[in-house]
Amino acid sequence: MTKPQQPQNQEAHHEEATINLPRRSLLQSAGVFAGASMMGLSTGGVWAAGSDKPEKTEVRIGFIPLTDCASVVMASVLGFDKKYGIKIVPTKESSWASVRDKLVNGELDAAHVLYGLLYGVQMGIGGAKKDMSVLMTLNNNGQAITLSKKLADQGAVDGAGLAKLMAREKREYTFAQTFPTGTHAMWLYYWMAANGIHPLKDAKVITVPPPQMVANMRVGNMDGYCVGEPWNHRAIADGIGITAATTQDIWKDHPEKVLGTTDEFTKKYPNTARAMTAAILEASRWIDASLSNKTKMAETIADKSYVNTSVDVINQRILGRYQNGLGKTWDDPNYMKFFNDGAVNFPYLSDGMWFMTQHKRWGLLKTDPDYLAVAKAVNRIDIYKDAAAMAKVNVPKDVMRSSKLMDGTVWDGKNPAAYAASFKIKA
């Protein structure tokens, strides 16, 4: 395995924000409070007077070098944080385990984090048990499953081809995901199972931090992996892997990373949590507003302070321009979305519940939890709605949503225990 890179603190990267803005300039620069009182929020005047002012004005938000950290980074770089009276300090972390540990022990105030990681901590199956909070969803879509060029040369260019190869050529096949309870593990397992491969019995699955995936495939440590961009496109650019499936093929507009923190933080600093969410909502809207904004975002996050790769490895897929490494190219309408008129960002209860159903399916949870009660406790729709009102972002009417996944099953959150038990291939 390659040696994990050391986390970097990015405080020096940012100019010192003026935190205690005068009342008038705060209201003028924000311009976000019109109609806030109608939403049941305090007015800007009350906030400026102190009662709604962020309790903590500098927030350390951890991130992993992935394209979908962009809204956290851009909220800081473009100054959306200042508008809400806070300074976001993005801090680069080496692995999801590091993000988890620093969130739990308070070294980080919040993080760009895997949806399933937070639920794992909440349920005590992904490390020490601690009550967690999902403040918003950061993105939909935009991950992929990469298979090695060696496998592709043997006919494994998609799920069906992989299943045939594994049945024909008997050996130990190794696949990597990024965290045992995380999104990539669940996409990889779901995709393999939908193609008749039992991920826990027919293969060996290992955990590798996202930035180390390409290096590990290059030296032959795995046959395939599921990870976020740009590390799938990078494998193609480096000539060592092919894209067998995108995660939007598995579940169109699936939930992916979230803005996560501890329940302890949201209770102690509710105004800060709201301000943080509003600032990142604004950055999400900005990214999705135009092609030029997406291009500028790609140029910004490619920097060594953030993702540390070339711009062209990021900017193609962020615009929906895909290639599979075998000569096929296509324009994908379901590329990574950061906003989509707020539909991306709402913390649907059904999204959180889905990850628990998969944790149950694969034996991570031994018994069915009270799915709805846990999701209501973790997904802070109350904070999100306040932040959305501040940022003038539309809020969906329903806290649940319905989706059809690649195998034809429909997930709507209505009977999670039955759903979890319904799969033929499970632990």
Could you name the key traits of this structure?
globular; alpha/beta; 6-stranded mixed beta sheet
Task: Give an account of the 3D structure.
It is a single chain. With 427 residues, the protein is an alpha/beta fold. The protein contains 20 helices and 15 strands. Strands 1-3-2-4-11-5 form a six-stranded mixed beta sheet, with helices on both faces. Helix 3 packs across helix 14, helix 6 (115-123) crosses helix 17 and helix 17 (349-361) packs across helix 18 (371-378). Mean pLDDT is 90; it is low at 1-49.
**From the helix content, strand content and strand pairing, which structural class follows?**
alpha/beta
Q: What is the gyration radius calculated from CA atoms? A: 21 Å
> How many strand units?
15
Query: What is the multimeric organization of the chains shown?
Result: single chain
> Helical region count?
20
Order of strands across the biggest sheet? 1-3-2-4-11-5
Residue stretches low in confidence (pLDDT < 50, at least 5 long) are: 1-49
General shape: globular
For the biggest sheet, the summary is: 6 strands, mixed
Quick summary of this structure?
The protein is α/β, with parallel strands linked by helices.
Record the SSE blueprint.
Elements: E1 8-9, H1 23-30, H2 44-49, E2 58-63, H3 70-77, H4 80-83, E3 87-92, H5 96-105, E4 110-114, H6 115-123, E5 132-137, E6 143-148, H7 149-153, H8 159-168, E7 174-177, H9 183-194, E8 204-207, H10 213-218, E9 224-228, H11 231-237, E10 241-246, H12 247-250, E11 257-262, H13 263-268, H14 270-288, H15 291-301, H16 311-318, E12 321-323, E13 329-331, H17 349-361, H18 371-378, H19 381-391, E14 403-404, E15 410-411, H20 416-421
Parallel strand pairs: 2-3, 2-4, 7-8, 7-9
Antiparallel strand pairs: 1-3, 4-11, 5-11, 6-9, 6-10, 12-13, 14-15
